[in-house]
Amino acid sequence: MAKQRNTKLEALLTEFGYTHQQLSDEVNRIAEAVYGSTAQCTDRHVRRWIAGDVQWPWSRYLLPLQEVFGRSPEAMGFVPRRSSRIPNPPKRSTTGKEQPPVRRREFIAAGLAAALGLDTIPSAGRLGTSDAERIHSIVPALYQHDHALGGGALYAVADDALQRVHFALNHCIYGDRVERQLYAATGDLAASAGWFAYDAGRQESATGLYNEALQAGMLARDGMLQARVWSNLAMQARLLGRDTEALRVGRAAIETRQAKADPWLMALLHCRQAVGYARTGDRVHAQRSLARAESAYDRGKGEPTAWLTFLTPAELTGLAGAAHQALGQHRRAQELTSSALGMLDGRFERNRVYYTVQSAQALLDGGELEHAAAEASRAAAIGQRVQSQRVQDKLRGLRTQMHRHAQVPAVADFLEQTRRTGA
């Protein structure tokens, strides 16, 4: 058989931000934790896998690769031979407490602090423009992993970075121009940490971080940052059941000069307002907001800022599905959500779980119990790969509702499956 380049594995390296050397180091680290000795993997092995020279790696490499990417060998682009089998981790004796299972998100999150260069943030001396730019660069680096890992894996890293920046602001010296840049960078980081806390279910921490980001935005005279925080505060209010407050805050964000100048942000704000109006039963304003969101998105050119990279046609379609679901239009909601899942890029793993749950909810509310159970099972299976308390709570709520239909075999199977796996 002629060799064929493994484009799936190559895409995974890009998605997770690994170089060939970094992936080989990760394989060796996991192999040592699982087998008790290194796999002696090198960047040459990785290059040969991608080139297609090796179509099915040895077991000592394959198991760590499954742990790193959370994918089956076939999903990583490997082609099994007739005699190939997926390896199981060896049984090994342990002393004291059992070692926790190896998970790719823990490895990535643990390595992020070093990769972000947090130790290089000055703690004394004079800060310049390059220091402000270095702090600003932390946020895009964090968001490269947020879509796949969820806020639970990143909150601690972002909070650590923020504390280091606070120390620098209070113990270093800097001029007026750099001060504004530092406040803008700090506010951007605080808003991001607030989002990670929100996604991780730490709502009190999220509120405090959002307030800090608002203050920093005012000191930096950064209207875009303030509009972003208002948008996130509206989303948090909606999560906490304060729909009228969420609409008021969302309207304030839409009226900012910066939102009006940025079609990406305006599209997001109108989408979220549509969901808010739908939750209060205002069908006319919900549909009007969806139309405005689509119009604003069509005006977008180039690339959005780092925190808005999730705003794709799939996201707009998924939010439209959420609005129709809130209006009780379950069939239309399921159609839109299914379409969103079909368009969703592979790197948005958390959103895939979120919208799969939304699809199951629409099917359940529409009385399609067997299809709802199948969709819920898919959500539970992939939901364990992300650390998002917000998504887990949504799945848990769906599971609670499905208990009312436990007499349906497919639903009973789903409930038993999730009970056994703890999903």
Give me the secondary-structure category.
mainly alpha
Low-confidence stretches: 83-104
Helix residue percentage: 55-70%
The level 1 CATH classification of one domain is Mainly Alpha
Number of helices: 21
Question: What would a concise description of this structure say?
Answer:
With 423 residues, this protein is an all-alpha fold.
Q: Your description of this structure?
A:
With 423 residues, the chain is mainly alpha-helical. Among the domains are: 7-74, 434 Repressor (Amino-terminal Domain) (Orthogonal Bundle); 313-423, Serine Threonine Protein Phosphatase 5, Tetratricopeptide repeat (Alpha Horseshoe). Helices cover 70% and strands 0% of the residues. It contains 21 helices and no strands. The protein is globular and about 60 Å long. Mean pLDDT is 85; it is low at 83-104.
Secondary-structure blueprint:
Layout: H1 7-16, H2 20-35, H3 43-51, H4 59-69, H5 104-115, H6 129-136, H7 138-149, H8 151-171, H9 176-199, H10 203-219, H11 223-239, H12 243-254, H13 257-261, H14 263-279, H15 283-298, H16 313-326, H17 330-343, H18 349-365, H19 369-383, H20 389-402, H21 409-421
Helix pairs in contact: 2-3, 2-4, 5-8, 6-9, 7-8, 7-9, 8-9, 9-10, 9-11, 10-11, 11-12, 11-14, 12-14, 14-15, 14-16, 16-17, 16-18, 17-18, 18-19, 18-20, 19-20, 19-21
List keywords for this structure.
Serine Threonine Protein Phosphatase 5, Tetratricopeptide repeat; 434 Repressor (Amino-terminal Domain); mainly alpha; globular; 423 residues
